């Protein structure tokens, strides 16, 4: 009987570890996608990660826009700002992972967000 209990405990532990590893992989994928957005042009949004999961985010500016610097400290025509981006990985309308990351957003010389 003890052997059966031990085996069941091992299977439950393995199942929990696999679920945790899957969550870590989903979060790594979500962060890779978030790093490719400009929070100035996409302050909120949703992206499907697979058939059942989606990434959603909401960005808030921290401070204000400042000149973007180029070689030797020269200002370009672009302006940048720091954004705090709160994100969630959602499955069936329930967040399975939540977090936040800081990203740089930029606007062009015309004042419109860049890609």
Describe this structure in words.
The mean pLDDT is 90. By secondary structure, this protein is α+β, with helices and mostly antiparallel strands. It is built from one helix and four strands; from the N terminus they run H-E-E-E-E. The chain has a four-stranded antiparallel beta sheet with strand order 1-2-3-4.
Give me a quick take on this structure.
The chain is of the alpha+beta class.
Please describe the topology of this protein:
Elements: H1 2-34, E1 44-48, E2 53-69, E3 75-91, E4 94-107
Antiparallel strand pairs: 1-2, 2-3, 3-4
Instruction: Report the average pLDDT across residues.
Output: 90
Output the number of helix runs. 1
Strand order of the largest sheet: 1-2-3-4
How many domains would you count in the coordinates? 1
Q: What is the distance, rounded to the nearest whole angstrom, between the alpha carbons of the first and last residues? A: 62 Å
User: Uncertain segments of ≥5 residues (pLDDT<50)?
Assistant: none
Total DSSP E strands: 4
Cα shape = elongated
């Amino acid at each position: 009987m003890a052997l059966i209990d031990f085996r069941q405990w091992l299977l439950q532990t393995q199942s929990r570890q696999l679920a945790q590893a899957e969550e870590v992989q989903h979060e790594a994928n979500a962060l890779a996608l978030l790093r490719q957005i400009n929070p100035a042009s996409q302050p909120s949004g949703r992206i499907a990660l697979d058939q059942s999961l989606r990434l959603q985010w909401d960005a808030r500016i921290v401070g204000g826009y400042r000149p973007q610097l180029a070689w030797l400290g020269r200002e370009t025509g672009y302006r940048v700002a720091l954004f705090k981006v709160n994100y969630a990985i959602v499955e069936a309308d329930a967040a399975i992972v939540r977090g936040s990351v800081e990203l740089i957003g930029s606007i062009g010389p015309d004042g419109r967000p860049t890609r």
